[in-house]
Amino acid sequence: MTLWKAHVGNFVCNSGASLGEYCLIKVTETGWSGTYSNGQKVKHMVRAKSVEGGCAVAHGDSGGPVYSYTNWFDEVAAQGITSAVGKPVYCGGLDGGRVIVFSRAWDVVKDAGAYVMVY
Hints:
By secondary structure, the protein is mainly beta. The protein has one helix spanning 105-112, and strands spanning 2-3, 11-16, 20-35, 41-50, 57-58, 65-70, 75-85, 88-90, 95-97, 99-104. A six-stranded antiparallel barrel has the order 2-3-4-10-7-6. It has a three-stranded antiparallel beta sheet with strand order 5-9-8, with no helix packed on it. The longest helix is centred in the last third of the chain and has 8 residues, at 105-112. It starts with a strand and ends in a 7-residue tail after the last helix. The mean pLDDT is 83.
C-alpha cells in the first residue's frame, strides 16, 4: 500500500460499512472548508462526486477508507478517511449522498505523525 495526495480530477473509491465499495468518484475540490449540519467546522477537506450520479457515500460510512487503485488494480493507495455526506439523497434503502467529504490521509500522516496500517 502506498500513500497518495488527493488532487482534483483523481478517481477514488469509498469502502464504507453501509454502502460497501464504490469507485466511480471523482475529486472535485481539495482544501474545502465548511460547517457540517451539526455545527462542526472543518478545514482542508476533500470533496468528491459520483460521476454516474449515484450514491458515493451513505450514512454509516464515516471513518471508513477512501483509496485509489494503482498499477492496473495491483496496488491500493490510501487517499483519506470518510467524514461526511454532501446534500442527502435516497440511495436504494439508505440515506446517502452523491458527494463525499473526506480528510486526506496525506495530511493526517504529515500533520499528526500518524501511520497507515496495512492488514
